[in-house]
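FIELD: query
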Amino acid sequence: MKTYSITDIGRRRTTNQDFIYASDQPVGSLPNLLVVADGMGGHNAGDFASRYTVETMVDYIEKAEENRPIPLLGSAIHQANDLVIEKAKADRSMEGMGTTVVAATMKDGYLYVANVGDSRLYLIDREIEQITTDHSLVEEMIRLGELQRKDARSHPDRNIITRAVGVRTPVKIDFFDVKLEKGDKVLLCSDGLTNMVEDDEILHIVKKSGSLKEAAQRLVNEANKNGGKDNISVVLAEF
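FIELD: result
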């Protein structure tokens, strides 16, 4: 497995509240681990929430006896959720903080995924397929037939999420498993990419790039060229 990861502040933000992690080496019982978290909250709370969540997850996974990917990812997110809530209660300056998280591991020819919020995971081969489902207000509106998907990108409430780590306990997590084929690429990203770059363009950039590094940097550049309204995080892996 090959990986490349990059995070960028974008053109409009003064801080980067995204936090990423990518290891192609074993983390505890997992053979590899990929994570993107997009924090929310004023002052330093958002960047603390995303970093603390990812660091808590990695620490939990390194020490856990569980070796089944889905239960392990789920338990790690639940642990992070509880600790972020505790931190917010102990420090009023961090009240209201939270973070999205999307995490994945490749094991025995399968991709195992967990997500909370609207950071996404895509599977890219000849096509691009969004594996995760956004936990967002606009996604709920689309599901209820109140909004067309083509209009979601410009909707004024597109940044409102309906689930996050650090908001309530227990946190509700979605899980997915996908069979992988040789050459499949996996993309984890924050909405700073997907709000700025259409899926078809993401596919085109990844397919036309000579390496994961080139693809990731071109994706960030494209998001910034289109406005760079938020922090941009990209984790790419090839099976």
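FIELD: remark
The radius of gyration is 17 Å.
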